[in-house]
Amino acid sequence: MTQTLSSIGSAPLWRRLAAMVYDSLLLVAIAIVISSLHLWLSITLVGEAKATAVGFKWDLSAILLIGFFGFYAYFWRRSGQTPGMIAWRIMVVNYEGRTISFKQCLIRFIVGIPSCILGGIGILWILFDSKDQAIYDYAAKTEVVLLEKTKK
């Protein structure tokens, strides 16, 4: 099934959440790959005892954060859709209906982290907002639209 880029309005909350669940599975896979490479490199450089010591790994956290941002920035800049967004026919665009800039990706990602972590308040804002926008959409000057189905 292909889709057109004609939007039919704001994407409903349930579609956004479904896309987030879909994308989170891909992010888990990315985290496994990054963590495995980090562990292998750490063991190679500092030895097994130090590499596997219990404690918070700041370097790994930073690399994971960069990897997750890279995932979103790549897809949002390329087509405005992550794989989860494609599956649920939603797209993030700027106010002119075009793909978002790198700066907008960064703002959306940075504001989106606490928005989601703090009980999801940033995305649940959609329920109370007249424009159906999340907090991070306002911050980045973006909107998430629902795409029409293509007729066969």
UniProtKB/TrEMBL annotation:
GO cellular component: plasma membrane
Domain of life from the UniProt record: Bacteria
Pfam family, one: RDD
Compartments, as annotated in UniProt: Cell membrane
Primary location recorded for the protein, binned into one broad class: membrane
Residue ranges occupied by any RDD domain in the UniProt entry: 11-141
Membrane topology: Multi-pass membrane protein
Residue ranges of the TM segments: 21-43, 55-75, 105-128
Keyword annotations: Cell membrane, Membrane, Transmembrane, Transmembrane helix
Entry-linked InterPro entries: Pra-immunoreactive (IPR051791), RDD (IPR010432)
Protein name: RDD family protein
The organism of origin for this protein: Spartinivicinus marinus
Lineage: Bacteria, Pseudomonadati, Pseudomonadota, Gammaproteobacteria, Oceanospirillales
